[in-house]
Amino acid sequence: MATQRLGKGLSALIPDIQEADTIRKENLSEIHVSKISPNPFQPRTDFDHQALSELKSSISENGLITPISVRRLGDGYQLIAGERRLRAVQELAYETIPAYVLDVSSDQEMLELSLIENIQRENLNPIEEALGYKRLIDECNLTQESAAKRVGKDRATIANFMRLLKLPDLVQASLRSKEISAGHARALLAFDDKSEQLKVWKKIKQDGLSVRQVEKLTSPRRKTAKNKAAKPASLEPHLQEAEDKIRQIFGTQVRIQKKGKKGAIELEYYSENDLERIIELLLKLW
Predict the structure, then answer these.
(1) Domain spans of the chain?
(2) Tens-digit pLDDT profile for residues 251-275
(3) What is the CATH number of domain 9-155?
(4) How far apart are the C-alpha atoms of 15 and 11, rounded to whole Å?
(5) CA 144, CA 231: separation in Å to the nearest integer?
(6) Whole-angstrom Cα distance, residue 236 to residue 243?
(7) Would you state the pLDDT for residue 3?
(8) Is 83 known to be catalytic?
(9) Which of 83, 117, 128, 215 is catalytic?
């Protein structure tokens, strides 16, 4: 049986093109749906009923294009990846489903593969992704750096996702349901007090505030008149894009100030802990 690899994204789950013929013969099987048990390490907890309905229609019309992935467990199988596909097939009352039978011997490998597959397919909401990283780190005894390498992400990305878990439960639920965006959630982290976070969160919903408007709510506590005067009315498109990318990496307000051919990049911090976090990220990038 071909050796399966971890930390390679979907290549850990789906055969490489040059290996496709060999692995299909060895690993692809038609399995009875009744013999497949759920994945206890599934990081995805929120399922869109409309999307599932559309998937059922597609499978009914065109068949299942992408097989699920399973591992052998006792006399049956345990799902690794493809829960929506399995649910759709079950609801369609299909007796069998095509599946790659992978050689996965440990729960740690199961958790890694489940998380990698869902992240690479972009099926997770930000809170599910953050919880997945937390489980990967806690249950597999990994550092943020090693977890980032396993899933093919930057360490800063992992850190920013996990910071979302510090938000109040109501805000996390709002992010799960797409009531607010990840950008809104990161902006709320600028407020150390949870009651203040909730107050601004309610204002976002009531007034339909944009991410930039939320970020501006924190500005009066830190901006000086000099900083305001120094900031240009608008940035060139490429500088605005760079500013947005840096903001995503550091999870804080960022300003690029252009002065002729020179300029400056300013990162804000909102507490001693936030300053330490930003310094840590800068040292890692260095």
Answers:
(1) 9-155, 167-219, 222-286
(2) 778 888 887 778 888 888 766 667 7
(3) 3.90.1530.10
(4) 6
(5) 35
(6) 10
(7) 36
(8) yes
(9) 83
